[in-house]
Specification:
heterodimer; A: alpha+beta; five-stranded mixed β-sheet; 14 helices; 22 strands; globular; B: mainly alpha
């Protein structure tokens, strides 16, 4: 039986969750396909949307609970939450943040105060009006939350201006703040949900669907909100989400007609369905949204990995394409930095390509100075991750770098990374749509000595990275921001705190009758993001053909 | 059945349950990992982690936590999930019917096929039917249940669309769908049991059929079916009943896999989910439930011996 890591420990720090766990796992496959190939087939001549019907979607895991300030929303969590809640903002096809539940989100001149005004006349499912108090209750809840507060630590105060408006005051200019409102932090739950100790199991929002029933481990059902503020939406009368953790069972369920749609990151499932003409298939291999990267994270604070020559040698010794082709069925684009090739922040970083001789040279140089290189190589106890790690371990061995492999249980894995009790870990992270949300993972300010909690897991203190991250946060000039993040990627390429492997691809597969997964409009008339945003889409715009 | 016999068995239950709960509590707490990471994620500060550990009583010594838990659980309060805040008893109530139904169906299925087949095979040992059924039984034993499950899903759900591939419909919602959703899991889980029961009963029956009292019955001219069902079957089911009781542990283990494979919201699935989330309280509840079920099932088996053979009831040993 294959098993993916069930607890994908995620940190919900931005618009999307960042899975800090290593790659999802499944059985390996040895066929390769051309890199980044996408096989999207959906909505060809579907006609006008039809109202009515009910769909069952299978998810790879389950939400812990529906309180945005207390429960961790990974991609699955966001998918569940998006039924009952609306985010204040959403990404458009232009990759800009558009107001969603908010009427407007405007900064002051120096981006130290953001004024968020919500739409008037919107009501929660229990009839309470959506107002400034509700928005303030949510944001204040996040500021108190041990889970979400680190991401918005730059907020100094949330102040009610009038019945529909709040001012969010910042400690520093914060240009990309609205991108945080497109995810967990942007959902507006009823203040009753937040204050009720059982609120996380009986959510009240303004969303397109009303909460009906949740039997953990079995199903979550939400029914159409007839008074939804976006007229004509949602199309469906009812949606049901079922967690089916086992990837093969999930795929079989679609083929057997037990469910109507599913999402997955399993390479073998993706390869299988890409060829299957009986289903609609959408993946985000070419979507401009940011993707999570898989990589080996190095603890740069301790020898031998504190020496840049060793880290560079690891990069030169890693044949990324071979790993991706062998372990991930060839469907993951191999990555050379924190941003994938479709990202606007991507630039040629000069990250080392596979070159065994260069790796051997660097190893020889190091060994002459400091002796043999040995360290521990860690991964979680999932089959796929073990496969990847063993494969890479062997590549490194060919360059003369000896490692001992250690499998660590998931929550210990994360704790070890936090306190620096590791050398090199296979990791998956950095999928925030705006790289500003990755600041807390990369900044020197969050790098603590070994033994203390350090969100900068690699403990990589780099003044050039800090300067670029600050520019990215403070500058309103898009070109300047892009240059800043490209500079970050460049520094990572030279300094190699991370040995990159591949980019995570999400796919949504459905029966042909399911439409509207990627074709939707934002309330202001703009087109929604083209494709999936790290596996996310809006169920309110999905409809079922007859 | 004497009240004394019952009472003696019941009293024996208490220390067993106590030992099981204490050991499982200890074992769970030896597991690596930290629930605060699972609940608050990596970004939480040391202070909020410490606060959470305090709220969850994780900063108290193990015996004190066990004592608190034991005190509450005696009154029926098994605590609340760290992660979802759901009371454990509520979660167990939601999940138990699924697992019970699955176990019951798989056992019934296994026995319903095994008993008649064993009788027929014992009647003419080493003939065609006996050989075929023995061979198939070995085959079924050799296939691991996750493999059989995948095969059944492929054949009966994906290809033939006869049964749903995954999922569970509640009996109260739709009894027919409920049965349909459990056919494949029950077959998957029951297949290996079927093989064991078949082999066991066949061997015992063959032995019984060579006893003097059977020869006697034959000499009296009783019809074969009557000899088999009235005289031979009952004394031959001793090992079968024993194994069926002991098998419950194995079945529950198998149910963990089967529930995962078929996405059934049973006790097994709950335990696996909770272990991965380091949700100790819920795991403790499920372990206790399974232990109690196991002990009670074997208690019932003991009672059943008394029914099968009156000598057990009167034995003073």
């Amino acid at each position: 039986m294959q098993r993916r890591s069930i607890v994908r420990v995620t940190a919900v720090l931005a618009a999307t969750a960042l899975a800090t766990a290593a790659c999802a796992s499944n059985k390996g496959s040895s066929q390769g396909q051309s890199q980044g190939q996408s096989g999207n087939r959906a909505d060809a001549a579907a006609g006008p949307p039809q109202a009515g019907g009910r769909l069952i979607m299978a998810t790879e895991a389950e939400i812990d609970g529906f309180d945005p300030t207390k429960n961790r929303f990974d991609i699955t969590g966001l998918t569940y939450a998006e039924t009952v809640y609306d985010p204040l903002a959403a990404y458009g096809k232009d990759r800009k943040v558009h107001p969603y539940l908010a009427q407007s989100i405007e900064p002051n001149a120096d981006y130290t105060v953001w004024t968020v005004k919500v739409r008037s006349g919107v009501r929660f499912h229990n009839g309470d009006p959506l107002n400034a108090d509700a928005v303030k209750a949510n944001l204040d809840g996040h500021r108190r939350s041990p889970l979400t507060s680190p991401a918005i630590a730059s907020i100094s105060d949330v102040e009610k201006v009038d019945d529909l408006t709040v001012n969010v005051k910042m400690k520093e200019p914060w240009v990309s703040f609205p991108s945080y409102l497109t995810g967990q932090i942007g959902y507006v739950a009823s203040p009753r949900t937040l204050s009720d100790s059982n609120g996380s199991r009986n959510p009240i929002g303004t969303g397109p669907f009303k909460f009906k029933e949740w039997v953990p481990g079995n199903h979550f059902i939400a029914v159409k909100n007839p008074d939804y503020w976006q007229k004509g939406l949602p199309y469906l009368d009812e949606v049901e989400y079922r967690p089916i953790v086992e990837v093969q069972s999930r795929a079989s369920s679609l083929k057997a007609g037990t469910i109507d749609l599913l999402h997955t990151t399993d390479p073998d499932t993706i390869v299988d369905f890409r060829k299957d003409k009986k289903v609609s298939f959408i993946d985000d291999a070419k979507s401009p949204g940011e993707h999570e990267e898989s990589f080996f994270m190095l603890d740069t604070a301790k020898p031998p990995l504190d020496d840049v020559r060793v880290r560079q040698a690891l990069a030169y010794a890693t044949d990324r394409r071979k790993v991706v082709n062998t372990v991930y069925a060839g469907i993951l684009p191999d990555s050379t930095g924190p941003f994938d090739k479709n990202s606007p922040y991507f630039g040629e970083s000069g990250y080392p390509g596979y070159d065994l001789n260069k790796a051997k040279d660097l190893v020889a140089q190091y060994e002459k100075d400091k002796g043999r290189i040995t360290f521990e190589l860690g991964t979680t106890n999932s089959a796929k991750n073990l496969q990847t790690t063993q494969f890479v371990q062997d590549m490194w061995k060919q360059a003369g770098i000896n490692t001992t492999l250690k499998q660590v249980e998931q929550s210990s894995f994360i704790l070890n990374a936090l306190v620096g009790n590791y050398d090199a870990y296979l990791w998956r992270q950095f999928g925030a749509p705006d790289p500003d949300a990755d600041l807390i993972w990369w900044s020197s300010a969050t790098a603590a000595p070994i033994g203390q909690l350090s969100l900068n897991f690699a403990r990589n203190k780099d003044p050039q990275v800090d300067a670029a991250l600050a520019k990215g946060r403070h500058s309103a000039d898009e070109a300047e921001r892009m240059a800043a993040y490209q500079a970050v990627a460049k520094r990572f390429a030279e300094d190699v705190p991370y040995v990159w492997i591949g980019t995570t691809v999400w796919a949504v597969v459905s029966k042909p009758k399911v439409h509207g997964v990627t074709t939707w409009k934002l309330p202001d008339g703009a087109d929604g993001i083209d494709g999936l945003l790290s596996g996310r889409f809006l169920m309110s715009h999905v409809w079922a053909g007859r | 059945m004497s009240a004394r016999f019952l009472l003696k068995k019941l009293v024996q239950l208490v220390p067993v349950l106590f030992a099981v709960s204490a050991l499982s509590f200890l074992l769970l707490n030896l597991l690596p990992g930290d629930p605060t990471v699972a609940i608050h994620g990596p970004t939480a500060t040391q202070e909020s982690r410490t606060r959470l550990r305090h709220e969850l009583d994780l900063d108290k010594p193990l015996p004190a936590r066990y004592a608190t838990w034991l005190g509450h659980s005696v009154t029926g309060d098994l605590g609340k999930s760290y992660v979802s805040n759901q009371p454990t008893t509520e979660a167990l109530k939601q999940r138990l019917p699924v697992s019970l139904e699955l176990l019951l169906l798989s056992q019934l299925l296994a026995l319903a096929v095994a008993i008649p087949l064993a009788i027929l095979a014992a009647l003419r040992p080493n003939r065609l039917l006996d050989r075929v059924s023995t061979g198939s039984a070995f085959g079924l034993l050799a296939i691991p249940n996750f493999m059989l499950g995948v095969l059944l899903i492929y054949l009966f759900a994906v290809r033939l669309h006869l049964f749903p591939a995954t999922g569970y419909t509640r009996f109260t919602e739709n009894p027919a769908e409920n049965l349909r959703s459990l056919v494949l899991p029950a077959v998957t889980l029951g297949a290996a049991e079927l093989a064991v029961y078949l082999r066991l009963l066949r061997t015992d029956l063959i032995a019984t059929l060579q006893e003097d009292f059977i020869t006697m019955a034959k000499a009296k001219g009783l019809p074969t079916w009557r000899i088999l069902l009235r005289h031979a079957l009952r004394p031959s089911t001793f090992s079968l009943v024993t194994v069926a009781g002991l098998n419950l542990g194995r079945l529950i283990g198998g149910a963990f896999v089967v529930e995962y494979l078929f996405a059934l919201p049973g006790i097994g699935a709950l335990t696996v989910e909770s272990i991965f989330k380091r949700d100790y309280i819920v795991v403790q509840g499920t372990v206790l439930l399974v232990a109690v079920a196991y002990v009670l099932a074997n208690f019932c088996v003991d009672l059943f011996y008394g029914f099968l053979d009156p000598r057990v009831r009167h034995a003073r040993a």
